[in-house]
């Protein structure tokens, strides 16, 4: 039996426990029970719950970066730059889909207060990934195939929007699979990195899944109907879709009806997808729940919001 197996058993049990109970409510006792190991075996490897969380975080970073490096190595040369960008965007979204519980844990926890060993492990992984990205981007920038930008800017252009989609999916604000947005986000990333070239036409809307089109249009309609709200105030709790024809792929989402009930807390929206011929090819019925309704009160100065910290 490998000496690492007990650690993996503990980490797998911890991840399942955190996903079920939440990190704050989970205890080492819960993890022990799920892992089926002794108290001494647990504390031999991890002295605290925080130490388990840190090791789980490191494992997640290692898994993610391993896949990213494979995506970069899959394509080489100036002619493959665009394909590599697409692979990197798709990898990010696919990894979140495949490792939903781990991704949720990592986004929720952010960067824990590392023990020295884990801090060194994270820095080593990040340096290795940065070197691979630099090795890939440097010859392309020298050849003029991509813009010569700092690595932080490249990362923001390539995976920043994917982070946004992943967060919303993990929190339940969108139900369409993150990979359904991959092509559109990859086109946007390439437009940001391609040097001195005419902008390509936006990706056709049919490249985004019909479900994603309907959800976005429904949230827009709800915010217009309830102008005091924003997208983040609403959660889509139900989406049903009906095919109306077998014509060309849908192009445009069009609002058909909206009904707001329960004092502005529930909205029911019907959206049609219109094809290139102007015919309705699909209809979606969306039920939206207002997640943070505000009771009418006297106006007061709102506190400054807290920005996301990666």
Q: Descriptors for this entry?
A:
single chain; 310 residues; alpha+beta; Tetracycline Repressor, domain 2; 2 domains; four-stranded antiparallel sheet; 4 strands; disordered C terminus
Overview of this protein structure:
The protein has 310 residues and is of the alpha+beta class. It folds into two domains: 48-203, Tetracycline Repressor, domain 2 (Orthogonal Bundle), CATH 1.10.357.10; 206-290, no CATH class. Helix content is 52%, strand content 14%. It has helices spanning 5-21, 28-35, 39-45, 49-73, 81-98, 100-109, 116-142, 151-170, 182-193, 210-225, and strands spanning 234-243, 250-261, 266-275, 280-290. A four-stranded antiparallel beta sheet has the order 1-4-3-2, covered by helices on one side. The model is unreliable at 294-310 (pLDDT under 50).
Q: What overall geometry do the principal axes of the alpha carbons give?
A: flat
Percent helix: 40-55%
CATH superfamily of the largest domain: Tetracycline Repressor, domain 2
The CATH architecture designation of the largest domain is Orthogonal Bundle
Mean pLDDT figure: 81
**CATH class membership of the largest domain:** Mainly Alpha
Count of individual helical segments? 10
Kindly report the spatial arrangement of strands forming the biggest sheet. 1-4-3-2
Radius of gyration over all CA atoms, rounded: 23 Å
Q: Can you tell me the residue ranges where pLDDT is under 50 for at least 5 consecutive residues?
A: 294-310
